[in-house]
Write a structure and sequence with these properties.
α1 crosses α4, α7 runs antiparallel to α8 and α10 packs antiparallel against α12. The protein is 56% helix and 3% strand. It contains 18 helices and three strands. The chain has a three-stranded antiparallel sheet, with no helix packed on it. The protein is flat. A hairpin with a 4-residue loop joins β1 and β2.
Length: 414
């Protein structure tokens, strides 16, 4: 077996050739491969040892079950370990995504119909997997409820839609899309009787997802838990950038010292998600926290990124680490750990605070660096005062004429 360091070097070189960003390669090395190399050194072995890699994987799976790491970070770890093990086995990195085995399997005949329909009708719009799943659900339902049928009827399709609406209420859009595509295909093959046009059916609009955010008291509690050591100074500054300026985790870790204009009190960043330049004003609390970290906590190294690791070799942080930081601090002070909130919840808090202060929507959108108003929806659903206003009666509206006035005040119709 080859040395672990050589295998890691091969993985990183092949990842670069494959087109991986340098930041991604660095994250895999420092966050995953370097700890594995250290474990080999600790065990006194230099050659690649599968048991050490599997112990590393098992440890991360355990941390995932305890919510110490996010699902997205765990997915990154699994992919990196796949790259490592495939390179160790064959010398070449397997960059393919593993396909999960099918759980919904109809008869061979009906599965062949699904494959033919998907191949001839679907255009690969990004939802093909979901459409495929509900086509298979459809035929499994038919086989279960109508085992002796040779021809599909409108009544069977309506029965499936009713059944699916109860079992999969959150996926009814995919159900109807699958039905429309499949019925058109079956009709073209003379396998469907009936004239009902299922394209006229459309599900009701899905409910607005109420995204979680951090309250002011929760943010104060998190800040109180950061401490005054270098890690605490760094974490405090990052939390304030998220809460006070709405920066994404990726933009925080990519922030460099030259992005800060100390004279004007502004930061100038190019958003990693949209590539749109953004200029934001720092309040005095955030500026002082950043300055305190740079002067009294930040180690000197070759990188210009503001926020660095505290252990050698010093290097920029990775975005997923900020969500882990929020989980650790939340456990420390008893702030609820809510799935999906993570560091991004600070960005939602920032937008909600602006909305509750009466800031106009177009200005909030600009301050968040969004390209369209549609992107603002998830950030503004918690404006309770404005929501409650929509449900108010007419008691505060000066109505002195008309049918409502006559019916409620006993006045004369004018």
């Amino acid at each position: 077996m080859r040395p672990i360091t050589q295998i890691v070097e091969d993985v990183m070189a092949q990842a670069k050739d494959y087109g991986a960003e340098q930041s991604t390669v660095n994250m895999m090395y420092y966050g995953i491969f370097k700890p594995i190399i250290n474990r080999h050194d600790k065990e006194g072995v230099s050659e690649y040892t599968p048991s050490i890699v599997e112990d590393f994987r098992a440890e991360y799976e355990d941390r995932l079950s305890k919510h110490d790491v996010s699902q997205s970070h765990m997915a990154t770890v699994r992919r990196a370990l796949q790259y490592l093990t495939s390179c160790a086995d064959s010398g070449r990195v397997d960059f393919s995504r593993a396909k999960k085995p099918l759980k919904i399997i109809a008869s061979d005949y009906h599965m062949s119909l699904v494959d033919e329909c998907m191949g001839s009708v679907c255009s690969g719009d990004g939802h093909s997997d979901s459409i495929n799943i509900f086509m298979r659900h459809f035929f499994c339902f038919i086989e279960s409820m109508y085992p002796d049928c040779d021809i599909i009827t409108d009544e069977m399709i309506r029965a499936f839609i009713l059944d699916a609406s109860v079992k999969y209420p959150k996926s009814i859009g995919y159900v109807m899309q699958s039905v429309r595509i499949l019925t058109d295909y079956l009709r073209s093959k003379n396998l469907l009787t009936g004239s009902m046009d299922f394209s006229v059916f459309s599900p009701k609009a899905p409910p607005t997802i109420m995204q979680e955010f951090y309250t002011e008291d929760e943010v104060d509690a998190l800040l109180s838990a950061t401490g005054d050591d270098p890690i605490g100074k760094r974490n405090k500054a990052m939390i304030l950038l998220g809460y006070g300026n709405g920066l994404r985790a990726g933009d925080v870790v990519n922030l460099t010292r030259k992005d800060i204009d100390w004279k004007s009190g502004e930061i100038h960043v190019v958003q990693g998600k949209t590539d749109i330049p953004l200029k934001l004003t720092l309040n005095s609390t955030t500026m002082n926290a950043i300055a305190d970290y740079i002067l009294n906590g930040r180690p000197e190294c070759e990188y210009d990124n503001v926020f660095l690791t505290v252990a050698r070799p010093y290097r920029p942080l990775v975005a997923s680490g900020l969500s882990t930081m929020m989980t650790t601090l939340s456990k420390k002070v008893g702030v609820a750990i809510i799935p999906g909130r993570s560091f991004h919840g600070l960005r939602r808090s920032y937008a909600i605070n602006l909305a509750e202060a009466g800031t106009e929507l177009d200005l909030i959108s600009q301050m968040l660096g969004h390209q369209t108003f549609e992107c603002d929806r998830q950030y503004l659903t918690f404006n309770r005062e404005q929501t409650f206003f929509c449900a108010m009666d007419f008691s505060m509206v000066p109505i002195t004429t008309g049918a409502y006035y006559v019916a409620t005040q006993g006045g004369e119709k004018k």
